[in-house]
Design goal:
The chain is α+β, with helices and mostly antiparallel strands. It folds into two domains: 65 residues, 434 Repressor (Amino-terminal Domain) (Orthogonal Bundle); 176 residues, Beta-Lactamase (2-Layer Sandwich), CATH 3.30.450. The chain is built from eleven helices and five strands, in the order ααααααββαααββαβα. The protein has a five-stranded antiparallel sheet with strand order 2-1-5-4-3. The longest helix is centred in the middle third of the chain and has 19 residues.
């Protein structure tokens, strides 16, 4: 059977339903009539380029998918897409590198939309001691590196708690982007065998966020994570980049991170 591509109206309806909005809700936010929106979704009316971009903005559709919908409507893509190594991305790459470097001795890294490692600062390397070599071969997936039985998982002291946190983030990301690659990754992570719990290990609680508690050569390290993204990006690649930064959860973590950074390579 021949594959029939969805129409722009079908795409719009899918994203509206994914955002749990009624036609009236979206129409009010986009300042058009619900009747007009209904005609667009059913194919009775073809949206102008500006109208389509307005609707996609209200639906918070990822830039990559906005280009797909524009093409479905017969328009050229609106958002450029450059590799991070392209000359056009030089300033952005330099900014990312500067932020990561400035974060030392605290770990920080940049990832793409599939959690593939793009850049990392020098504080990340000491934390990877003992990780299987095949997990460090490019492209390195950060979630796989964290939860694989041959990755960091055996040294994560609150593995069940941290694993739940990461899987929730991945599920939320899929809900927001509808990227099928994320579902494949989720299935893989769920298939990993969990090591037995160490009941003797105390589980420190943070009053503000789920910590990453990692056993290192310098002792048990407790870190809080934060995510940074570029505001109002106009390039697809830049819109999909995130910087994951880790902050010491206590004074002991500061001392451990400084000692790890000072250890010979």
């Amino acid at each position: 059977m021949a594959h029939i591509n969805p129409t722009v109206g079908e795409y719009l309806r899918e994203w509206r339903q994914r955002r749990r909005l009624s036609q009236l809700d979206l129409a009010c936010e986009a300042e058009i009539s619900a009747r007009h929106l209904s005609f667009i979704e059913t194919g009775r009316s073809r949206p102008s380029r500006d109208m389509l971009l307005r609707l996609l903005e209200q639906l918070d559709v990822p830039l990559r998918q906005r280009n797909v919908l524009l093409l479905a409507a017969g328009y050229a893509p609106h958002f450029a897409e450059h590799a991070l190594t392209d000359s056009a991305m030089h300033d952005a790459r330099a900014a990312i590198s500067s932020i990561l470097k400035a974060h030392e001795p605290f770990p920080a890294l940049a990832i793409d939309r599939h959690w593939t490692l793009v850049l990392a600062n020098g504080a990340v390397t000491p934390l990877l001691a003992g990780v299987a070599a095949h997990l460090l071969e490019p492209p390195v997936n950060v979630l796989r590196l964290s939860l694989h039985p041959e990755g960091l998982a055996p040294r994560i002291l609150n593995l069940n708690e941290w694993r739940t946190h990461l899987l929730q983030r991945l599920r939320l990301q899929y809900d927001q982007t509808a990227d099928p690659v994320l579902l494949v990754l989720l299935d893989e992570l769920l298939s990993y065998r969990l090591p037995p719990l160490n009941a003797a290990q105390p589980q420190a609680q943070s009053p503000i966020a789920v910590p990453l508690r990692l056993q290192t050569a310098e002792g048990a390290l407790s870190l809080l994570s934060a995510t940074m993204v570029f505001g109002t990006p106009l390039d697809v690649t830049l819109s999909e980049l995130a910087m994951e930064t880790f902050l010491p959860a206590d004074a002991a973590a500061v001392a451990i991170l400084n000692r790890l950074m000072s250890r010979p390579a």
